[in-house]
Structure formats: C-alpha cells, structure tokens
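Run: sequence + NAP -> complex structure.
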Amino acid sequence: MKYFVTGITGTVVPIIVENLIKKDPDPHFYFAIRGDAKGNGIQKRFESVVKAMDLDQIAKENLVRRSRLVEIDVDEDNLGINPEVYSELIENTDKILHGAADVRFDQPYDKIRMPNVVFTLKIYDLFNAITQRRRQKGLRKATLYYISTGYAYGQYKKPIPEDFPEFHPGTPDNTYARTKAEAKAFVLDKINRLNDQIVIFEPSIIGGSAKTGKTRTYNLHYVVMMLGYLGKLPFLTSADNRLDIVPVDWVAAVISDIMAGDALHQGVLRLAAGPNGIPINYLHDEGFEFYTKNNPVPGHVIPKIRFVPRYVFNFMVQAQKNFYRAMYFCTRNPRFRKLVKGISLLEGYFPYITGYKVFENSKSQKLIEKYTSCGEAPTLQDVFDESGKRVKRGYYKKIWLSSSVKLNIFTQNPRPFT
Ligand SMILES: NC(=O)c1ccc[n+]([C@@H]2O[C@H](COP(=O)([O-])OP(=O)(O)OC[C@H]3O[C@@H](n4cnc5c(N)ncnc54)[C@H](OP(=O)(O)O)[C@@H]3O)[C@@H](O)[C@H]2O)c1
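>> structure
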C-alpha cells in the first residue's frame, strides 16, 4: 500500500507509522514535511523522527528505504508541492493519513485556520484528484483517514453523542476546537454528499503509552501535574469532572489496524475512554499519594491542592492575570508579561478540566471490536502487561514515574528515580 502521510514530526503519527510498517506487508510512504524554525531541513527532521522510533535497526532502515519526503508549504497552491511530485502522488497514492494540525490552544483564529482548516481543504483536493484518477483507470478507490478530535464538539451539557452522519458541535472551547470542528464539518459533508471513502478518527485526550506511561511531548495532564507538584497550582476545581484520556499506543494501534486492515472505509470512529474516564479528584489523590511516597525532588514538600467552586477558580485566575498585567504596565518587567502569557496558555486547557466532558463511545467501540484487534482503551486505572493481562491502575503508576523523571529535569535537581 502507498500512503501519503502528514504530521510525521508530531507525537501521534510516528507511532501509527511504527505500527503500519509492521502490519502492512508492503508499505511505501510519502511523508509531507516542512523545515523547522531552527533551520533544520526536511531530511534532518525525518532522520531524527526515525531515530526516535520504537523500531529495531533493520525496521528503521526498511522504513527509510520505503519513504520519500515531500516538502510542503500549506500557504502555497497544491501545498507548495513540486508539480511533478504532485502528479506522482495522484498517480500512486492508495491512502492518505492527515494527522497534521496546530494543537496549540492560544492561537488567534486567523492564524490557526491555515494549519487546521485550509490544510485539510488542500489535502481533500489531493484526495479528490487521486479519486478521479483511480476512477478513470478503473482502480480501487483511495481512502482518506483524517484525525479530528472529540473536543471538536465544544461545550456540551450532556454526554457528547456519536451522531454520525450528523455533527452538531456546541460553542467551541478555544480556536483549536473551533478550527477542528470546521475541518470535520467540511470532511463530513464530503462523506454525506459525495459518498467519499473517508474515515474520521476522534480521539479524546491522548496520553502517554499504556506500556511505559511515556509520551514524546509532555502536555495537558503532565503540565497540570507538574504545576501541582511544584506548588504553582494551589487551587483546582470541578473535582467530580471526568478526564477522558486514552493511551497513545492504543490510539495508534486502532488507527493502523483500520488502515492496514483495509476493510472500513467510511465513517467516524471515536477513540475515547467513555464511561471509564477518571474523575479529577481521584487523579489528584493518587498522584499526591505517589509523589509523597516517592518524592522525586529531595527536600521538596508537595503543597496540597484545594478544590474550590468553579466560579471562584475562574475569578482567581482572572484576578491573577489582571494583577500581572497591571504589574507589567507599571514596571515593564518582561517577567510579568511572560506570566500573563503562561496563564493565557493554561486557560486554553481549563475547559478540559472545568467543563463537563463525557464522551459516548459504544457505537465506536463496536466498530473497533469488529475491525481491529484492539479492545477497550486501557484507561488511567488499567494497562495491559506484556502478556496482555489487564493490570489495575498500572497506567497511573507509569505516568507518575515518567513525570517524575521530567520533574527532575524541570527543577534541575537531578536524582535517579527508582
Ligand atoms: N494530542 C492529543 O491529545 C490529541 C487529541 C485528539 C486529537 N488530536 C489530533 O491528532 C493529530 C496529531 O496530534 P499530535 O498531538 O501528534 O500533534 P503534534 O505533536 O503537535 O504534531 C503536529 C504535527 O502537525 C504538523 N503541522 C502543524 N502545522 C503544520 C503546517 N502548517 N504545515 C505542515 N505541518 C504542520 C507538525 O509539523 P511541524 O513539526 O513541522 O510543526 C507536526 O508534525 C492532530 O490532528 C490533533 O488535532 C490530538
């Protein structure tokens, strides 16, 4: 199978590719990639992605041999792809995986629309050209796999439905959710009106691996845990709210099974913990107990986090932001501006914690059981061990351990953690 893949320098897509190289007997990849802000070119970036992959040397060499890099620029027509290469893509591609997106929560709408909406529109143009070409040649249809997010549904007062072929998002939590909702609506319309072969994946929050607890980037719950540990988050709210976090290796296993299995070609698959989501106070209590017992930074006393009503929490956050803003205005000390920026960034995450977010997942779970070798997402309480046995609360412990290592680096007070 020949795949055109976006998002290979991200967190999730490389793990899907690690899986595909094992599951597809004859995979070939075109990777859409761009240079980075540090001046690293596409070749160098790809080499570091492959180096970091959880594959043995032979598999890595095999992947490199089967890969072709396609430099892209989303601002340009046809993604800025060289015309000859673009024609080659139309001629050869069987499947597109569109996993690239700007996942920051604090970006202005006009800026984030390009990587999240316009990028998807341009990927669809390529998919459409491939579809037409294959029709002319009498070949099997191509499939587009698009990674959306459960959070595209925005604010919901009741459980977020699996309403495919419908989609009725609530008010978006941030510009990320808004643009992901726009892109999903666009793609969904192509399924509904044109019967296109498109599969939309909707993960909830993607956490570290169920096997190791590790993630390539420390986001969301790791940031909150670290802030809590360091005493920078004396208050939290909405103790009963559930966090729906799914391990990245489970997400990658489901997506790669669907892609390599080549049997499900249309629909929406929600990748969520559903009723197994974990309440925030449970997460807090377990983390507090673990860190107290295994203090990763010697001498550091972990302040207890106090839970307050949501309106008090939001008021305190706003008051603190306004205070730092005023301090910056009076002193022009850049530290205060940085603090305002930090709070604004965290505010993007607050809806995930303070808002009611419960995802229905029973329909998707049936499809996952039918089309993949994966069961339910191992949630925060459970992981599967090497022999496939469910271990209660295993994932937790691994996350604490892995974030402890990060804490050591973060505080520059390294101590090997046992
Ligand atoms: N992580 C989660 O918790 C989560 C949950 C639900 C859904 N998702 C979805 O899963 C997908 C992968 O997420 P992730 O966590 O792996 O994201 P990530 O680590 O931030 O990676 C994003 C990828 O998109 C690429 N990208 C962004 N803007 C681009 C642009 N303008 N041109 C070219 N490439 C661009 C990045 O390339 P550069 O390295 O060049 O910037 C990178 O490869 C996304 O669609 C996201 O919306 C993620």
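>> summary
The radius of gyration is 22 Å. Residues 7-13, 34, 36, 72, 74, 99-103, 115, 147, 149, 180, 203, 205-206, 217 surround NAP (CB under 6 Å).
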